[in-house]
Fold this sequence. Notes:
Layout: E1 4-7, H1 12-24, E2 28-32, H2 35-42, E3 48-52, H3 58-65, E4 70-73, H4 84-98, E5 103-109, H5 132-149, E6 154-160, E7 162-164, H6 174-182, E8 186-189, E9 198-200, H7 201-212, E10 221-223, H8 232-243, E11 249-252, H9 254-260, H10 265-270, H11 275-278, H12 286-292, H13 300-327
Parallel strand pairs: 1-2, 1-4, 2-3, 4-5, 5-6, 6-10, 7-9, 8-11
Helix pairs in contact: 1-7, 3-4, 4-5, 6-8, 8-13
Amino acid sequence: xxxxxxxxxxxxxxxxxxxxxxxxxxxxxxxxxxxxxxxxxxxxxxxxxxxxxxxxxxxxxxxxxxxxxxxxxxxxxxxxxxxxxxxxxxxxxxxxxxxxxxxxxxxxxxxxxxxxxxxxxxxxxxxxxxxxxxxxxxxxxxxxxxxxxxxxxxxxxxxxxxxxxxxxxxxxxxxxxxxxxxxxxxxxxxxxxxxxxxxxxxxxxxxxxxxxxxxxxxxxxxxxxxxxxxxxxxxxxxxxxxxxxxxxxxxxxxxxxxxxxxxxxxxxxxxxxxxxxxxxxxxxxxxxxxxxxxxxxxxxxxxxxxxxxxxxxxxxxxxxxxxxxxxx
Length: 328
């Protein structure tokens, strides 16, 4: 069985894909900058090969890609360094092609679509990004699609909306989970009542592994929609109900996000993406479902239950040593 390389394996999507590969019996290589992080997450799995890389060094990228047939690309950058996305993709593609990698699956976003022209967005929607981040993501995609069209390597892209779940801290909902678990007020970025969709992070891995092994998937991109249109308010209501508390929120509008950005680089960069809260991009994934047949989506109440349970386990694990110290 071939080894699958996960570039950017330390992220939550990388961990979801790793779990799916493990469950299906695939050998896989986890690639990232930090050996410690990779070993904490995958080191106990005998099927996992831990490889560190330096994305600034072409020789290091080639070594990370050597001997694999399929490369899953999930490399993240800081929100204020999106200019790196096309450059890192270019280096990775050059290394992968040189090493004889046959297939690359890129995990993408809705950013390249720009402002939605339809209520739901299919893959035929124009890619006209209205943000710098969208332009950088589109440039990243073009490099892969052009390499595929030239016959140098097979490439496909899976687009995700916002996601949530255990370990997902960069989510509009994360603060609500933490606050609800503590019975406190959740600081949210609004408006809260516009339609939105979320993908449960543990659903992504099995879809990625199914897509990578489908010959018809290559040469284009595919949408993965959430588990239905909802709103932040409805999600928060369910989160607090499951946590056993009445919902309490305070909402930041665009002006407050801009003000917070004076002190927080992530919030500063979020300003240009604020349109996703007022002009939501809701994905139509009928093409993906037609391709794969089965696309499992965890219902929101169940995803919320699992996320709260994971958060409680994490907090209990952190509190454990403190309790022991307090009693000695």
